[in-house]
Amino acid sequence: MNMWKWTLILVAMLWPIRNVTAQVVTVVVNEDGSPVEAPSKQSQNLGVDKSKISDTKSHFSDKTDSARYTADDTDLIWSIKLLKRTFEKQKNNFVVSPLSIYFATDLLANGAADDNLQEIMSGILTETADYSIDDINNSLKRYLSKISSAFEINNSIWADDVKSQYLDVVQNMLGADVKSRPDSTKVINQWVEDKTHGRILSLLDVQETVEGTIYLVNTTYFKDDWVVGFDKDVTKEDDFDSFDGQTDKVNMMYKKMSVEYYEDDDMQAIRLPYKNGDTIQIFLPKSDIADFIKNLDAEKLKIPYRYKTVHIYLPRFEIGYTNDKLVEDFQYFGLQAAFDEQRIDLFPKLSNIPHYVAQIVHQANIKLDEEGTVASAATAVGMLKTSAIARPDKNIYFRADKPFVFMIDNGAFIGAYLKGRLD
């Protein structure tokens, strides 16, 4: 019996806002942003000069459900699962894109059936048996219609042989472009490069494609400025207590601002807004970050923030990460049938030609600086024949000079900064 391969390649990348060729709007705050010197590990009861506080509240519009790409808590749950699994294997700085992988997995699931579909659904796409693949499609369609202008999300199908019913679904629900299989993957790479504004240059190895090959491709691009940026002239070299026990150096940014803040026995947390309504959250554990990540769950990250005046110290950082063994991770999450090369009934809704999953690769990169954040994500699936407000009475210091977790929205991107370095 002739068999076929199916290859899933996942790539997510974040890039610095100053490197983006598109127009950038910069927020200028006319105030004195010089840092207040504070002990590294504790705060002091000092008076607050409110005239020198940058206020994100006046700029920040209440978040809508546009930041949620699932109808329930699956986005948070999936992001935390991926964070935990990656941390188990990667004891250095990393970033992953749960959102990009989720879109790729939905493209995959729409072609699957029976036990294979159920494993894909329960392993990644939903936490409840009450949701069908149609529910997932509808949720993503709503998400695409409500995302902020900071996002650009594109899907495409490159194939010779795909069933019309499958194409109808992914076109109508996910806005996918349908394209003929190119002679070379170089054509697909160019499409990805264009959709990510030149940030992902070589998603796939350049090679001739084989007759019957199918590629399912998602690109996700995010670009925005902070509502209140950090002042470059006060960024300075500082110590960082890294996960490996070493004391490293970082370029520490600083800003005193009115910001969404939370603190309990386990952590401090802040939520910083971008101009178009999206946010990044920084979770700073008070104890060992390994225990913190191990005990994370969706409820813990449903944080009741309150506006506080906070002295924020945050490293300017850049992280690159590659994982070419995501097949093992998907199997860990409960997907088994999709990788069985002896099966010919795995994806009957996609094509008349049987396929199985042979490889999954994920790459990610993030650079966060004084101006804001740019994020790009691309996911390609290649198939060969057989992804509340209050003011404080005292100064509060959020000093990220030890390992922390960060997350854009409810899992567009998530990662951990574990080891300091000068970027």
Give a nutshell description of this structure.
The protein has 423 residues and is of the alpha+beta class.
Topology diagram in text:
Elements: E1 6-15, E2 54-55, H1 74-89, E3 94-96, H2 98-109, H3 114-125, H4 133-146, E4 151-159, H5 164-174, E5 177-180, H6 185-195, E6 214-225, E7 236-241, E8 247-263, E9 267-273, E10 279-285, H7 289-294, E11 306-323, H8 326-332, E12 357-368, E13 372-383, E14 396-399, E15 404-408, E16 413-417
Parallel strand pairs: 1-12, 2-8, 4-5, 11-14
Antiparallel strand pairs: 1-13, 3-16, 4-6, 6-13, 7-8, 8-9, 8-11, 9-10, 10-15, 11-12, 15-16
Helix pairs in contact: 2-3, 4-5
The radius of gyration over CA amounts to: 22 Å
The CATH topology of the largest domain comes to Antithrombin, Chain I, domain 2
Number of helices: 8
Strand content: 25-35%
The CATH H-level superfamily of the largest domain is: Antithrombin, subunit I, domain 2
CATH class of the largest domain: Alpha Beta
Distance between the termini: 54 Å
What is the string of helix and strand elements?
Answer: EEHEHHHEHEHEEEEEHEHEEEEE
Secondary structure tally: strands: 16
Give the tally of structural domains. Answer: 2
CATH architecture of the largest domain: 2-Layer Sandwich
Question: Which runs of at least 5 residues are low in confidence (pLDDT < 50)?
Answer: 1-49, 60-65, 384-392
Secondary structure: helix percent: 10-25%
Largest pleated sheet: 16 strands, mixed
